[in-house]
Amino acid sequence: MAMILGAEDANDWFYKGEGAANLVLGYCGSSPALLGKVLRVEKIQKGATRSAEECEVLTVHEKLVWAAIGELVESTSKKVIQQAFVTTVLNPLLGTEHMDAGMYVSVSSEFLKIIEKNVHNKRPAWRVDAAEIDLRCDSALLMSDHSIFPSGASKEGSCISVEIKPKCGFLPCSDFISEANAIKKSVTRFRMHQFLKLHKKEVSQLSEYDPLDLFSGSVERINLAIRSLYATPQNNFRIFSNGFLIYGGLGGGMDSIECEAKKLQEMKKAAEDRTKVLIRRDFGIQLDNFLELVSEAIFKSGMLNQLLATQKLDAIDIEGAIHAYYNVIGQHCLVCESLDDASLLHRYSLLHSLSLEESLKIVREYLTATTAKDCSLMISFRPKEGGDLTSNCISLRSSNQHFEYKANYIDMDIKPLEKMVYHYKLDQKIVKFYVENRENGGSPCDFDGGAENIQI
Ligand SMILES: O=P(O)(O)O[C@@H]1[C@@H](OP(=O)(O)O)[C@H](OP(=O)(O)O)[C@H](O)[C@H](OP(=O)(O)O)[C@H]1OP(=O)(O)O
Ligand SMILES: Nc1ncnc2c1ncn2[C@@H]1O[C@H](COP(=O)(O)OP(=O)(O)OP(=O)(O)O)[C@@H](O)[C@H]1O
Ligand SMILES: [Zn+2]
């Protein structure tokens, strides 16, 4: 970690976006080593009480879970573990071509303080309320900016990229899913979660997107999914022109709940118009053709096949994995404790009779799958002028134009073990809400089932 970013470097970084856990900055300075890079800075929930040291190291039980994976045995620092997680766990599953583990660089607390001040006005208010840059961090992740091609290679203004957060692409079929939750086997988690998000005003309308289309392996259905993502982008779809966001929301969905419906429609229409103009200007094609280009690239890259296989490592669903979790942490199972269904209890007793090794494997695979269900893809395009058509080229049948593309996964973070309890509660809450409210489109008035209210 030779590079150190100090106060004098802070103004070279601009706000690019954020998710729940990290804030991402683009580089506008002149250092050749940093051109074309982004810096991913960790955030901390407001009011969080964990000490800096607790945040930095794996818990005793996390060490157990990840101990079986070669390199990870040695590491106790989360940053080292994160890098090893990508190279040792994810690369064999997803290949190396589309992965970027990045590298950690040192940052001073002055640097972070200035950044925090500089980006404040750019951040969505609800993200500001939820979390802030963790000023205790002494490093941040430096990665390639996957919304552009490496500098020098592309003619100015000619790169358009999309970011897609595909979420879970399959229906679970685990025998450990209770009869009361059988709907999970026929309706996607994404669809059911939409109803709860609408009720909680986290989104302004139900998404048209169906992950089963995107992961279908059929180019026609992939195109249907891309059109739906474009119609209702939420936090699942963004478009960038030359690295700058032109369509979709910063740090979340485009349909920020802070806006009234009419204003939202106007903003969406303006973003659509701008996007169409830029696509026509830079690529000489209509929006429909661009969305076709995106679909073809997803189909051709085969990335989603590998991602789906990784997601399916969650073979017994959280309703099964949660029992393995309690085996791992060596505590009495709170889920079984709250059940009075003898047949279910019998099924779960099979899980509680597994060896520690078997339980660790279930938990490890569950956590790996969770990362694959929450990551995003970034695909960048530029017109291909002359020369041979390489394997990374798409030819648009409709206009006989050729485009080069590159695709990368982003947000490959390892998930904390303790989050499994939250996942279980959220899962129960999503299904309960959907079952009770699917008839009325997801906007009832008397649902109080916060994840924290589910009894276990
Ligand atoms: O549980 P989910 O499916 O809502 O996923 C969470 C995401 O919500 P969304 O994609 O909007 O539904 C959530 O995204 P948002 O904050 O809603 O943009 C995070 O990605 C969260 O992961 P982490 O806390 O950053 O590690 C995600 O949590 P994990 O489930 O990946 O732990
Ligand atoms: N390498 C990258 N190149 C370009 N843009 C990036 C890169 N990494 C992240 N971004 C942008 O920053 C945003 C936030 O990054 P990221 O998804 O890693 O945050 P997160 O907090 O981990 O997300 P989540 O809420 O899914 O956990 C992304 O949605 C994307 O627009
Ligand atoms: Zn149990």
Automatic annotation (TrEMBL):
<dbReference type="GO" id="GO:0035299">
    <property type="term" value="F:inositol-1,3,4,5,6-pentakisphosphate 2-kinase activity"/>
</dbReference>
<dbReference type="GO" id="GO:0032958">
    <property type="term" value="P:inositol phosphate biosynthetic process"/>
</dbReference>
<keyword id="KW-0175">Coiled coil</keyword>
<keyword id="KW-0547">Nucleotide-binding</keyword>
<dbReference type="Pfam" id="PF06090">
    <property type="entry name" value="Ins_P5_2-kin"/>
</dbReference>
<comment type="function">
    <text>Phosphorylates Ins(1,3,4,5,6)P5 at position 2 to form Ins(1,2,3,4,5,6)P6 (InsP6 or phytate).</text>
</comment>
<keyword id="KW-0418">Kinase</keyword>
<keyword id="KW-0067">ATP-binding</keyword>
<dbReference type="InterPro" id="IPR043001">
    <property type="entry name" value="IP5_2-K_N_lobe"/>
</dbReference>
<protein>
    <recommendedName>
        <fullName>Inositol-pentakisphosphate 2-kinase</fullName>
        <ecNumber>2.7.1.158</ecNumber>
    </recommendedName>
</protein>
<dbReference type="InterPro" id="IPR009286">
    <property type="entry name" value="Ins_P5_2-kin"/>
</dbReference>
<keyword id="KW-0808">Transferase</keyword>
<dbReference type="GO" id="GO:0005524">
    <property type="term" value="F:ATP binding"/>
</dbReference>
<dbReference type="GO" id="GO:0005634">
    <property type="term" value="C:nucleus"/>
</dbReference>
<feature type="coiled-coil region">
    <location>
        <begin position="254"/>
        <end position="281"/>
    </location>
</feature>
